[in-house]
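Tutorial handout. Part one gives the primary structure; part two gives the three-dimensional structure as tokens.
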Amino acid sequence: MSATPDARLNPFLQRLCEARQAHRLPLGLRELAEEFGRGVLEFLFPHFARTRRCEPADVAAEEARLRALLARALGWTPEAGGASPEAVDAFFRRLPAIYDALRSDVGAIFLGDPAARSPDEVILAYPGFFAIALYRIAHVLHELGAPLFPRLLTEFAHRETGIDIHPAAMVGARFAIDHGTGIVIGETATLGDGVKLYQGVTIGAASVRKNLSQTRRHPTIGDGVVIYANATILGGDTVVGRDSIIGGNVWLTHSVPPNSVVTHSDNLRRERPADDLIEFHL
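Part two.
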């Protein structure tokens, strides 16, 4: 029977002990992110709730529980102090706007997918909506200056859906993701209103050098752009003009003007008048 190692005689165990003492993040932060993310979805959409709680006192109790979770996640408790509790109040003041934005996203996904039978199906069954919802929650917390926790929220969505949206990305209204697996949207990306993405799309950086971390590295996608499966759009100077269509498997590292159609071949079936379109064949 082996003896328990004595930390005083084991330099590695001593290092671990010192690292634990120096650790200042709230414990269980990944689990807090998942609990808070699911909790906000249950609070906003009864589709995710396991019990029907309609009385005002029940709704108020749910909000109070979420406030306590967020305060813990941001490192603030009445006993320990930590991040300012004003950040919690600021988040909940913005919750109605998050809800309205998500209702708009649901409508865009439903109207853009003939296979969707109802908005309820979008909310419950579409991984794109789940990822968008957690992104919108995380983005507000990022704007409020919350450290790390927003990233954990979007990584929770990433684990669940395969959709990776950085919380700092700027995404406009009526955002639609169809299928969704493998989508990546980088930190400094900007997407306008009414953008639609299919599976495997990357809106990424042309260079990943660390010394570029404070520069714009990701593309700007204009209003009404549709990007089909497995297209890759790279670079902070790349701008895709409004109402453009980016075909599947396209590799794009330069800007295109509004109303463009970018494909790999000349076999383009036009759904709009030809004089409205500018073609780019890569």
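Part three, for discussion. Residues 266-272 have pLDDT under 50 and may be disordered. The first strand starts at residue 164 and ends at 165.
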